[in-house]
Amino acid sequence: MNEKIEEIFRNVLELDEDMELKDTMSSDDLDEWDSLASMSLVVMLEKEFHVKYEFDDILQMDSLGAIKEITAGKVI
């Protein structure tokens, strides 16, 4: 699951394939990660994993690691 999340993250933010992804990455680290990218990430993850994020979940999805953790908690 983490690999798929990273693939979606990389695609939505249009990051180079050779860029090393770290769970600590946040919007402060990546100029590409703006509010529109955040919402695109949510939509793509919801479609891929057939989950629904609550508003509080979205607010907590402030790093790649948080995205992975919250998504893992939603996937049954």
Notes on the structure:
- This protein is 58% helix and 0% strand.
- By secondary structure, it is mainly α.
- The protein is globular, with a radius of gyration of 11 Å.
- The termini are close together.
- The model has no long low-confidence stretch (mean pLDDT 96).
Question: What is this entry, summarized?
Answer:
58% of the residues lie in helices and 0% in strands. It has 76 residues and is mainly α.
Order of helices and strands: HHHH
The largest pleated sheet is described as: none
Backbone structural class: mainly alpha
Query: What is the CA-based Rg, rounded?
Result: 11 Å
Mean pLDDT: 96
Instruction: Pick out the low-confidence regions.
Output: none
Helix content: 55-70%
Termini distance?
12 Å
Please work out how many helical segments DSSP would assign.
Answer: 4
Q: Tell me how many strands there are.
A: 0
Overall 3D geometry? globular
Strand share of the residues?
A: under 5%
